[in-house]
Amino acid sequence: MSKRNVILYIAASLDGYIAAPDDDLSFLEAMALEGEDYGYQAFVESIDTVILGRRTFMWVKNQTGAFPHLDKDTYVISRKIGGSEDGVTYWPGSIRELVDELQSKPGGNIYCDGGAAVVNEMLRTGCIDEIILSVVPVLLGAGIRLFHEGIPTANLALLSSQSFTSGLVQLRYRVIRP
Question: What average pLDDT does the structure give for the chain?
Answer without folding.
Answer: 94
